[in-house]
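ok so i was messing around last nite and threw this chain in just to see what happens. nothing serious, just curious
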Amino acid sequence: MKHLRLLPLLIAAAYYTPHAHAVELIAVGSLSSLGFDLSSGTGGALENGAAGNLLGGLGSGLAYAGNNTFLATPDRGPNASVYNPLIDNTTSYIPRVQTLSLGLSANTSGKGLAFNLTPTLNATTLLYSPTALVYGNGSAGTGAGLTLGAGTPKLNDAGHYYFSGRSDNFDAGKSSANPNNGRLDPEAVRVSKDGKSIFVSDEYGPYVYQFDRASGQRINSFALPASLTAAKPNANGDAEIAGNASGRVANKGMEGLAITPDGKTLVGIMQANLAQDAKGTVRIVTIDIATKATHEYAYQLSTGSGVSEIVALNDHQFLVDERDGKGLGDGSKAVAKQLFMIDLNGASSVDGVAKLNAASPSVSKSLFLDLVPLLKANGYAANQIPAKIEGLAFGADVTINGVLNHTLYVANDNDFSAEAGDNKFFVFGVTDADLAKAGASYVPQSISAVPEASSYAMFLAGLCMIGLTVRRQRSEIFKA
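result:
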């Protein structure tokens, strides 16, 4: 099948003159956070009163899937409203994948950016396990004092055990890495080489799971190094931090996930340091998809308070999104939203190292793109730049004035909150000259074409109709 990423999207924009060898903002699009998604049966009110099919948080994770198709993962759902701090105000929102069309078209108006971007929601796929999961009971054990109903999703049936954002949905007798826990906080998503499945990283475990792209069924689980897990999980983040001297810090688990262009290796990155590691020293974990073997590397934060995403440039160089929490949605002015280029070639692993500090061997890094001054230069006030810049994905190439540009899509997580604005998608043009200046190169991921989620049901329905016709014809032949 054709590898869609290798087919450049050739769109002329002769009126537009980019700066020589400098990454440029070429398009911006928005998708309203006040609407609803396309899930079925999730429209009822959650514990905090929000709708179970509320559309939002789309930039928590963003992945390219070929042509103009992208996949976005909201995180654990709307939990900005305070209703029960004992479970960090989380709800029974079912984690899901949103299939989007992010269509670029040339802006021929002579004003503004080189391209128009029109985001469209095409499908919503809920994530579930075919085998039973552990949920909280809302009143005892892991949920002591919660006085809530059980955390079991109402949509559950035999063979469909849906994951949930509620923080009490876990087995208190096991570590946070128990793959049978029902709680899931998806923070990043990537598409497999064959296009048929997706990989999702999470903060609760942390976990890395593989799901069937069409159905949302979990089909694989990857065991991460034991150093990342919390031995004593708790429904309340502060209590969990106080109860564990090692492992990921609550709400700062595996925030970013990349996949190498050959589709063989996943590269996950933690949002912040583990409890036992020095502040600012973050762990990177590579996962061989075929063997499940892992290796760890250290990354040192520069200006941001944490890492939100990682995306592959090639099989050893990656862009890391390092940011603060300032900007639109925080009621403050954005300061640090920077993309650093790192290189795993020649990096020393920290496999089995119990504690990391600033002196631990770390991956090399260099600043590649400083988003705040670039967005301010394009008319965005510092208090209008989204606080949570979290999603990164390379899309189809475009041509501007005869120069090939690799499109880098950058999205925000608005936490399902109107105060944080719409789900925004910023598109930057990155040339080979830009990359060469950083000592980097770009290799697109090979993704085979599969039916898009919006047309998959029609495709299956068509097969069923064909099957019915064949059976009907056979029956008539036998009757004859």
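not much to say yet. The two ends are 42 Å apart (CA to CA).
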